[in-house]
Design brief:
The complex is a heterodimer. Chain A is of the alpha/beta class. Chain A is built from 17 helices and 13 strands. Chain A is 36% helix and 15% strand. In chain A, strands 5-2-1-6-7-8 form a 6-stranded parallel sheet, sandwiched between helices. A 3-stranded antiparallel sheet of chain A has the order 9-10-11, with helices on one face. A two-stranded antiparallel ribbon of chain A has the order 3-4. Chain A is elongated, with a radius of gyration of 26 Å. By secondary structure, chain B is α/β, with parallel strands linked by helices. The chains are: A alpha/beta, B alpha/beta. β8 of chain A pairs antiparallel with β12 of chain B, so a sheet runs across the interface.
Amino acid sequence: VSLGAPHPRTTLSCSNQHQWVHLLPALPPPLTGFRILDCTDELGVYATRLLVELGADVIRVEPPEGEPMRRFPPLAPDNEHVSLYHAHFNAGKRSVTLDLEREEARAYLRRLVAGCNAVVESGIVRDLLSTRFGVEWLREARPDLVLVSITPFGTAGPGKDHTGGDLVIAAQSGLLWLSGRPDGPPYRPGGEQAAHMAGLVAANATLMGLYDQQRTGRGCHLDVPANFAATLTTLQTGNANAYTWLGRTPTRRGFGMPFGRHIFPTADGWVAMTALPGQWPNLVEMLEEHGAAADLGNPAYLDSKHVVEQADHINEVIIGFTSRHSKQYVFHTAQRFGVAATPVSTTEDIVNDPFLQERGYLRDLPHAELGHDLTHPGPPFRLPGREPALGASAPSLGQDNQAIWVDELGMPAETFASCRATGVL
Amino acid sequence: MSDGNGAWLPLSGVRVLDFTWMVAGPLGTRLLANYGADVLKVESYNRVDRMRETGPHPPDRPWSYNEDGSFNDVNLGKKSMLLNLNIPAGRELARQLAAVSDVVAANFTGNRLDRWGLGFDDLVKVNPNLILVNMPVFESAGPRQRWTGIGTHVNALAGINGISGFPDDPPFGLGPLYPDFSSNPFQAMAAVLAALIDRDRGGGSQFIELSQYESTAALLGPSILQYTTTGEHPPRMGNHSDRACPHNVYPAAGEDRWIAIAVSTDAEWTALCRTLGHNDWLTDDRFATIDQRFAQEQALDDAIAAETPRWESHDLADRLQQAGVPAAPVNTLPDLLADPWHREQYFTDLDSPEGAVFTTHPEPLRPFGAKHPVRRSPMMGEHTDEVLQSLLGLKQDEINALYTSGALG
C-alpha cells in the first residue's frame, strides 16, 4: 500500500488570495494520501469528519449489521433506514465491514491497520479497539502508528471506567452548569458540543501525530479525555484564577453577558448585539439616526459604571429600537455603524443566508442509499487553491469492501468471497 | 520529538509568527506552543492585547500587564516581542521574521495585514512556503471584512443558540463564549497542521481563511440536513435527547445542585430503577419499553426528580456509575478544583516572574496517557532582544537604535 506519497509540487500563482473562488483547483487537499482507520462512536466521530475536510482517506470499520449510528435520529423523511445523523458525521468517509467478534477477523484487522497512518477510536475504555486488541498488537501491525483514543473521562484516574455520552460529559466537565437562567435548571449546549470539543482536540492530536510520523517515523498514543476537552469552555481563560484569587465563580446569566444584555427581540426574531469596548458612541449614533436614542447621547454614559447602573433603562431604549425592525435590518444596520451584532439564526436563516450562498458554503453531496443529494454544511475553513475534499455524503454499509480488501490490500478474490459468505466481512 | 524530560513535542522546530490577540487566535497558537512550536507573539504598547487587561488580576498586587489571569492562561509557552507595525521599520522587521517562520497567524479585522504590506501575497514573496491563517468573523475581504463580534455573536449567528436551551425560553444561547474555545481555535489549527504536513512533502504555501461563522456552523450536527430534507427546525430540547430516555439533569441535595442521568438501554433503565430504590417502575406498564418511556417522558422526569433530591449529586452519580448507568454530577468549576484527580491532572500552577501564582491548565490531550507539561506565558516584550539577536542576527546597538526609533514599542 503506497500511502502519503508526495503529489507534484505546483507553483500556484495566487495574485490575490481573496479571489480564490475564481481559481481553478490546483492542488489536492493537504492530507491527500493519508489513511485513517475510524473506530469512533458519537463521542469521537467529529474528529475523523474534520480529517475528511482536510482530504484524509477515512475508513470506517463497521460490524456486518452496521454501526448503531446508522439508526440515530433524525431519519431521512423518504427512507427511515437512513440516519441524517450518520449522513452528516460520516460524509466523505469510506465503509468496510469486519466482524471483530470473530477470531479470523484479527488477521484482517491487522492488514487494515498496517495500511493506515492513524487509528482514531472513541468510547468507554473497555470497548476501545486498543483495549480489546492491545496497543502493542496495533503497534506491531504498524510501528509508526498514530493512535488516538477518545474516552469520556480518560484512560487513567478514578473515572476511567465510567460511562457517559455528551450530556454526562458536559455535566462532569462543568460546561453544562453555565448555561440557562440563573433561577432555572442548567442546560447542555445543543448539538452535542462536549463531543464536538473532544473531536476537535482529537483531530489536532491526530494531525500532530501525523506530522511527527512523517518527519521522524515515530508513532504515538494520544489520550483525549472528552471531559477535559469540554473543561476548556468551563475555564473560559480566566475563570480558574478568578476563583483561586477572588473566590469568584461564573454563574448562569440568562440575558446577561460580560458586556451587558446580549440578545434583543426584533419584529421577527432575535438579534445578539453588544456595544463592545469603544463601540458605545457607534451604538448611540445608530439609535440617534433612528430617533430612538432617548438620553443615551448624554456623556455620562461614557462612564462604564454608569452604564452598569442604568442597564435596565439602556436595555429598554435599545429594545424600543430593535423591536420595530427585522433582525436582518438590525444586524446590518448595527454592523454598518460599527456595533457588534448578529442575528440569532434559525437553521432556516443559515440555509437561506445570501452571504453563505455566495460563498458556496452549503454543499449538495450524493447519498448512495437515498439515491439523491443531501445538503451538508460547508468546510469549516477555506483552503484557496485546493480541490474540494468531499465528493459524497456518507457511505452505504460496506460499500468499499471490494475496493479496500481486494483492490488495495490485495486480498485474493476467493478469500474475499468466502469471508463474505461466512460473515466475517 | 521529545525534550530531555520525555515530553512529547512533535512541533519542535516549527516557528509561528503570531499576530493574534484576544482568545480564539491565541488559544489556537497556544496548542502549537504547548507541543513544541516556537511561537513569537507580536505585541505593541500601541495596541495592547486586551487579555492583558481583562482580569482577573491577583489581589493586593500592583497593576501589571504581566499578571492578568486570562492572558496568562491563553498564551502559555509563547515568546513575546514588541513590534510597532504602524511605522515602516516595525513592518520591515515583521517581514523579516515572516521570512524565517513556518506559519503566520492573525485575527485582525478586515485586510489590515494587506494594508501593512504583510498580507499573504506580500509575505509569500519572502517565504515561498509560508502558511498564513486569518480568522475573521465573516470574511477576510469583501463587504463584511470589518464586521465585528465576539463569541456570543458567533454562537448566535452560527445557529448554536437556535438549538440550545428550553423551547419556551428566549434563545439565550450559552453562558460561555463557546466558539472561542472550540470551533475557531481548533479548526484553524487543524488546517494549519495539515498544511504543514503537506508543505513538508512539497505542497508549498497555503493561505487559510477561517470564517468564524462558517467554522462554528460546522458544529451544528445534522441540523442543516434535517431542515433541508424535512423543512422542520431541529427542536430545542433542553437536556432531552432524541435517542435516550430518561435523559436530563435532575435536582440533587443542596442549592443549585444537579445530577445528569442518561439512559439508552434496558439494562441501564433497570439499574437506574434499582439504584433509586424503585423496582416498582420496572413493572410499571407506562415505562416498560424505550418507546413508552419516551411517550411518558414528563411523568418519568417528574418521578425521578422526586427521588434525586434525597442524594448528594456526587454520591448518587458514583452509585449509578457502579451500577452501569451513565451519570455525573453537574459540576461547577470549584468542584473540579476541589477534586484531587482533576486538580492534579487537569490543572497546573505556574509562577509569574513578578511573583503571582497562576492556575492554568495543560491542553486536554495526554500523550501516552500522562499529564503534559506547560511553560508560563511571556511578559510583555520579554523576548524582543533575544528574538532579534537569534533570528535576525541583530547586534545590541542596532536593537537599541530600533527602540529609540519606536519600531519596538
